[in-house]
């Protein structure tokens, strides 16, 4: 979807159409969760500090996020996907991989399917979507960003290698800003440069990810679309209008975050063994504290107890806190967990 959160806000409030909109944060505090294309022209983007966004775009309009509304629209979009194929792997509320090799409408052209889906989304929601069409996940994902907003890009099998070789290294999906800068120091600026490196060299300098880089530089990505992808963590966080400085303030703010995580865990019929506490200080530095226990937990009481322990260990933060987050990982589905624990008693 194109600037999904911001586009939903502009759809629901026509007064915002054509104006620079930031979802999340405020003019003084917080972080931008999403920015409209009008805001992006000023260099405003997601994860940018709100105060910096306001400096870059003085007329920026800040809107509080409405995640329940975004989920509602997301469900509409996912249902449209499933009209064409059951092989849908959501990446987030507004993005998914679809395998349409075999599809419910027996359409032989993946390009035609993408066009139809985009038209269906527009008709059902009033929102625009962009699509990338290719023969593997890496290229399809990369293609989806080429003609945004409201566009489509296709990379045919015979075009794949030439496309990759000219692709700037920072445009490779899965290569972040830090890794891209490290590669540039080694003289790797595009796909052709990446392809010139041996698997041994890539592994030596980039660890396990090196083999993945070696393969995608050659257009090789055999990952299947996984409609039942295993969730790795469940979490929640909050950025505060005013920094928190005392233990009492931190505990009061931490409690509803733990409750949200417990509610989401219950809804997902999950449980986990690792609780992590995320602390963002007033100077924007981030610290994470984690603890793993011997049994699966999911209740508020268990999550809260570990969160409090992490907050106090090794000590209560001395610097003011602007953001707190809690996540539960090492997850196991309820049915799997109970299946493992089943025991049968036999009479002799």
UniProtKB/TrEMBL annotation:
One of its GO terms (cellular component) is cytosol. Pfam families: IMS (PF00817), IMS_C (PF11799), IMS_HHH (PF11798). Its cofactor is Mg(2+). The active site is at residue 95. Keywords: Cytoplasm, DNA damage, DNA repair, DNA replication, DNA-binding, DNA-directed DNA polymerase, Magnesium, Metal-binding, Mutator protein, Nucleotidyltransferase, Transferase. Residues 1-176 form the UmuC domain. GO terms for biological process: DNA repair; DNA-templated DNA replication; error-prone translesion synthesis; SOS response. It comes from the Bacteria. Mg(2+) binds at residue 94. It is an enzyme of class 2 (transferase). It is found in: Cytoplasm. It catalyses: DNA(n) + a 2'-deoxyribonucleoside 5'-triphosphate = DNA(n+1) + diphosphate. GO terms for molecular function: damaged DNA binding; DNA-directed DNA polymerase activity; magnesium ion binding. InterPro entries: DNA/RNA_pol_sf (IPR043502), DNA_pol_Y-fam_lit_finger_sf (IPR036775), DNA_pol_Y-fam_little_finger (IPR017961), DNA_polymerase-Y (IPR050116), DNApol_IV (IPR022880), PolY_HhH_motif (IPR024728), Rev_trsase/Diguanyl_cyclase (IPR043128), UmuC (IPR001126). Binds 2 magnesium ions per subunit. The record marks 5 as: Substrate discrimination. Its EC number is 2.7.7.7. Monomer. PANTHER family: DNA POLYMERASE KAPPA, DNA REPAIR POLYMERASE UMUC / TRANSFERASE FAMILY MEMBER. Belongs to the DNA polymerase type-Y family. NCBIfam families: PRK02406.1, PRK14133.1. Poorly processive, error-prone DNA polymerase involved in untargeted mutagenesis. Copies undamaged DNA at stalled replication forks, which arise in vivo from mismatched or misaligned primer ends. These misaligned primers can be extended by PolIV. Exhibits no 3'-5' exonuclease (proofreading) activity. May be involved in translesional synthesis, in conjunction with the beta clamp from PolIII. This is DNA polymerase IV.
